[in-house]
Amino acid sequence: MPIRQLPEDLINRIAAGEVVERPSSVVKELVENSIDAGARRITVTTANGGMDLIRIADDGHGMDRDDLLLSVERHATSKLSADDLDDIRTLGFRGEALASIGSVARLSVASRTINAESGLVLVVDNGRRSGPMPQAMNRGTVIEVRDLFMQVPARRKFLKSARSETAAITDVMKRLAMANPEIHFVLEGSDRTASNWPAVTGEGALGARLGQVMGADFVDNAVTLATARHGIVVAGMAGLPTYTRANSLSQFYFVNGRSVRDKVLVGAVRAAFADYTFRDRFPVVALYLAIDPAEVDVNVHPAKAELRFRDQGAVRGAVIKAIGLALAAAGFKASTSVAEDILGAFSAPEMAAPSAPAPGYQPPRPSWQADRAPLQFDRQPGRFSGFTEPSARVEPVDYALEPVDFPLGTARAQMFDNYIIAQNEGGLLLVDQHAAHERLVYERFKAQLASGPVPSQAQLIPVIVELPEEDCARLEEAAPELERFGLYLDRFGPRAIAVRETPALLGNTDISGLIRDLADGLAEWDSAAALTDKMEAIIGRMACHGSVRSGRRLRVDEMNALLRDMEATPHSGQCIHGRPTYVELKKGDIERLFGRSR
Predict the structure, then answer these.
(1) Confidence of residue 16 (pLDDT cuts 50, 70, 90)
(2) When comparing pLDDT for 509 and 339, which is higher?
(3) Strand pairing report for 41-47 and 184-189
(4) Where would I find the DNA mismatch repair protein S5 domain in this sequence (predicted)?
(5) CB 252 within 8 A of CB 285
(6) What are 543-553's pLDDT values in tens digits?
(7) How many CB atoms lie within 10 A of CB 66?
(8) How many beta carbons lie within 10 A of that of residue 392, not counting itself?
């Protein structure tokens, strides 16, 4: 078959296959054009998931007759200065959007500049152009796209349901609104509940816009990012490690005002939260990068959804540093959602008040009251006779102590040999002593390791741990690396390991359990050379074995010392597995539980 030139309408349809994937792609391209036109209010109206109607109205600069005619031509743009693809400072620059949309839908473009007496409207019906014609309108541009892919049934049948397409448009609009807090966005239509995101300016504008789009709950449980490194400015907000989601759909990335998907940014966020989040949980972030346009290539994807950094290492380092500093500044803070979960449990249906009993009904006497004398209260507050110690042991505390101005308060009791009850000036705290001390030991381990080999303590008699032969071989191979962590061991026959020294920080730990745990880790990692990369995992396993165990009874001074250490240690609001180390119930929350709030 001889080579021939393709007709213009077919060229446009092929281009549309790259640019116009679904209705949300149309919305993205057209709203980006409105943003580049200096609009301060953008209204998007849809019907049937955008398949029947997409209407974009803005109050931007508008277009005159010549610009209007060129706007529907391929490769015609006003946003590329000096034909320099290395200096992209606008959202749209390819000049293909309107031409591609007009080839697969009924496109109407109406526009008016500030000095024009009236507007002009141009219609492109599946590649056939008519106009422009005069039209009364305000300054700005109004674009309507009707019957998308109606003349291309092969493309239309691959679209999803109207509900799915509506959700995709909402997601695009959320990202555009998050990237441009100074613009008022309205999203409405017969297929949706209207969304209205008013413009916000001044200090705190970004946080206010994120609160509009992602919810005030996110802002209340997030830290602010604001650092600059190697010419890369990192801003935005990152959720606390205890404020996570089951998937990554709540992670948003913006580079120079453009919403993108990039594996470098995703990997950097994962690495920054590696020490803090629970397995299979994803942090919530809204990450904004400002970088020299010459250092990033945004022309690698037809829809401009992906990009390529020239120096990926610098970007990764800047993101990790920004999140690390913000989380460190948050200190021991934990998310309020943990307390809200507890309050929700208290008000669960199974705890609701029972219906009124029948007349003459006598409730059965609880078994723990059987054959007991009535309680006789002494005059001394808080003490009474006739009550034996319950199965859930409570550590007695000197109630003469008053809550002092410590964020985590003063220890009042210990329950179930694991949970510290503390009181501060604002409410009640429940602290998981094992999880909290595990984080403290972990952070001390990291600090010691950063300054050199971890100090060790010799065992009076080497501890012999019997293991399968293959586990012994792995530990023997890893022994030189493990000495950096303060752990010295030798092979002791074919099926045993002799432990001569252990990290001093661990104290009197379960050595056998620690060695078996490390052997399991080495089997999982399958390489002694991977120990350097698995440093955090090794420290985590050691910290778990060296922390205060559940079931240990603590004195009051020990409990208070643990609380003070938590206040002085970064990230102590969550253990190394991502679980919260404490829960705080404000006085108002407690009063609400008892119906005392007004």
Answers:
(1) low
(2) 509
(3) parallel
(4) 210-328
(5) yes
(6) 766 666 666 78
(7) 8
(8) 9
